[in-house]
Amino acid sequence: MKASIWNAVFVVAGFLTMCAAVAAEGDSGLPATAGKVAPPEPFGPVPSARQLKWHEMGMYAFCHFGVDTFTGAEWGSGGEQPEIFHPAEFDGNQIAGAIKAGGFKGIILTCKHHDGFCLWPTKSTPHNISASPYKNGKGDIVREMAEACRQADIKFGVYVSPWDRNHPEYGQPGYVKVYHQQIKELLTGYGPLFEIWFDGANGGDGYYGGAGGTRKIQAATYYDWDTIWDMVRLYQPQAIIYSDVGPDIRWVGNESGYAQDPCWTTYTPHVRDFQPVKTGSPLSRFDAWGFVNYPEGEHGHRDGRYWLPAEVDVSIRPGWFWHQEQNPQVRSPENLMQIYLASVGLGQGMNLNVPPNRRGLVDDNDVASLKAFGEHLRQTFAENLAQGAVLAASEVRGGDADTYGPQKLLDGDPWSAWITNDHWTSHAASVEITLAGEKTFNLIRLREDVRLGQRVEQAAVDVWDTQAKGGEGDWKELARAESIGACRLWRVPETTTSRLRLRVVKSPVAPALSDFGLYREPASVP
Ligand code: FUL
Questions:
Q1: Tens of pLDDT along 141-197?
Q2: 362, 380, 398 — which closes off a domain?
Q3: Range with the lowest mean pLDDT among 73-87, 291-305, 313-327, 481-495?
């Protein structure tokens, strides 16, 4: 749970500072395939290169692991003795293997949760793994996990909690130095990171070196986010920075595993009733607390000011950490599929938490569920049944079929697109699809070339109904959606046909659709 509404305020302040930086880095550019006819102007905000890479990943996993694994808590107080951390059979390869089998492309490890215990031998605080019995104080779980990810050929990322319920100086300037040092060690010591995760839970009661009590901080200013985010850009320029409101990806607004339809990738985080401090950069600091609008993250904003995709973070179990009694409550593969459809299938990202147990392994039930889910995904997407179809578009941009023709929908390149003329009108833009014979499918995928922004406001897929009009035949709508973005998946009733039509119903500018797929999901997900 998100501890407090205050917590996200800091990220807004920092976010707005970062926006200038993001804009200065430039967008991801116009289509590489631009031929003699110029591509259309991008519409609205566009993704950065690192955001595009993140979109391509689609799904990755969280790994909540630490002293809470051994105490049964979800938020350790900070007073835990390091001696309790003893995952005698810890095996990074088993963890990475189980997660990879689920189809996930990376792992974000909780290197330090709110309890302050560091899973690497940091020089910043004695409250770390070197004081534990794990490998006689010589262990480094961050290194082992980073290495296991490399071996499994998946990416690695870090979660490092700003709130530290152990540190005696939390709330004072001394802790900020400590926190910066911890971040620097993680940014510089463990190879390439794909994401760094900044939690919104900040301040409250804790152990605080034995003093106890409650510490309140001004989250917008206390941690000096400008310095932190500069460090990330300096040492790990390709890494995505997560916080509730950006700067690279936003929180979806719930921890239950869904974005809402329609889900716009564009978003404007804001603080209500704030007073900017006049420090030269009016947007870089706030001196008043307020509410942020992160509940709006589920839908995003059609007219949002920034390209700010949502991360749907959810646990495979009720808790974020492993608890023995939750072993029977592991999410089923079908449930994971529903989460996938409500995140990746709405153009956003899925971050599924898989917490290792006290032995330091992913538990059997979780392993089985991940394996069946991964197998289900593999079977579902093994064959695009639209391959080999003959495509006829109502129009092609400037008549330049080589560059913008409808065959771009099937060339397997997510960044080449069927694009119309700018004067496109809603009656004209469609592609008739004659399949290579009768095909049976129950899942449809559509993508936009988001390098040109999120353009389409409504699209539909029709099927030719031979029985309609007394046997004369007519189009029947099978699926319709408002937001498309980087990926749109529709589960549809099982349909057998050889003739379909893709129709753009509403778009303020020329649509640029890059991918069309028809798939058959196996009948049952275990
Ligand atoms: C929340 C934290 O308070 C939880 O413990 C967990 O880490 C979750 C992913 O984020 O804000």
A1: 999 999 999 999 999 999 999 999 999 999 999 999 999 999 999 999 999 999 999
A2: 380
A3: 291-305
The reply to whether ligand 1 has any atom less than 6 angstroms from the CB of 262 is no
The CATH number linked to 339 is: 3.20.20.80
pTM score of the predicted model? 0.91
Closest atom of ligand 1 to CA, residue 353: 9
The residue contributing the CA closest to ligand 1 atom 11 is 2
pLDDT in tens, 17-60: 343 333 333 334 444 444 579 999 999 999 999 999 999 999 99
Q: Pocket of ligand 1, candidates 1, 245, 313: which has the most ligand atoms within 8 Å of its Cβ, to mutate?
A: 1
Residue 33 falls inside a structural domain: no
For residue 198, tell me if it sits in a domain.
Answer: yes
3-state helix, strand, coil in the chain (%, to 5): 30, 25, 45
> Based on the structure, what is the number of domains in the chain?
2
Task: Tell me if 200 CB under 6 Å of ligand 1.
Answer: yes
Of 179, 182, 235, nearest in space to 202 by CA: 179
Element (H, E) at 60: strand 59-63
* Ligand 1 atom nearest to 62, measured from its CA: 9
The reply to whether 418 and 372 lie within a common domain is: no
Residue 356 and residue 327 in contact, taking contact as beta carbons nearer than 8 Å? no
Six-digit token pair at 432? 């008739």
Range of the domain at 100: 5-22+46-380
Residue 34 to residues 25, 384, 422, 515, Cα–Cα distance (Å): 22, 26, 15, 17
Q: Cα separation of 43 and 27, whole Å?
A: 12
235-239, Cβ contacts within 8 angstroms, sequence gap of 24 or more:
235/184, 235/187, 235/188, 236/187, 236/192, 236/193, 236/196, 237/50, 238/50, 238/53, 238/192, 238/194, 239/50, 239/157, 239/192, 239/193, 239/194, 239/195, 239/196
Domain membership flag for residue 525: no
